[in-house]
Amino acid sequence: AESRGRRAEDGRQKTEEKMKEKIKIIQGDITKLEVDAIVNAANNSLLGGGGVDGAIHRSAGPDLLEETRKIGGCPTGEARVSGGYDLPARWVIHTVGPVWKGGSQNEENLLASCYRNSFAAAVEKGVKTVAFPAVSAGVYGFPLKKATEIAMRETRQFLENDDLLDQVIFVCFSQEALKIYQETFSTRITA
Question: Cys staple from 142: which of 15, 20, 100, 191, with CB 3.0 to 4.6 Å?
Answer without folding.
Answer: 100
